[in-house]
Amino acid sequence: MDLEKFFDKVNHSKLIEVLSRTIKDGRVISLIHKYLNAGVLQNGFFEKTEEGVPQRGPVSPVCGNVMLNELDKELECHRFVRSQTTR
């Protein structure tokens, strides 16, 4: 399994659910939710973001790591390797 496109497919509802287990301040959760749904500019055109975590943003590393942590927990009883590649 290749996680190369992982960030493009993150389910917003699942991410908010996972974050809500740890972050008890609803204002922070609301801000993250707004960030995820804000959309992006691609080649001068606005695109809605219904899934995925926008890259190069201030919150994307946290959101990505939270979801990868969940993946690690799910795979604890299986043999696998999650490696980081540099390009």
Kindly list the characteristics that best describe this protein.
87 residues; mainly alpha; two-stranded antiparallel ribbon
Q: Give the overall shape, derived from the CA principal axes.
A: globular
Tell me the distance between the termini.
19 Å
**Strand fraction band?**
5-15%
Q: If you average the pLDDT, what whole number results?
A: 81
* Poorly predicted ranges: none
How does the helix and strand content classify structurally? mainly alpha
Please bin the fraction of helical residues. Answer: 40-55%
Describe the protein:
The chain is mainly alpha-helical. Helix content is 44%, strand content 7%. The chain has three helices and two strands. A two-stranded antiparallel ribbon has the order 1-2. Strand 1 and strand 2 form a beta hairpin. Helix 1 packs antiparallel against helix 2 (26-37). The chain is globular. It starts with 11 loop residues before the first helix and ends in a 13-residue tail after the last helix.
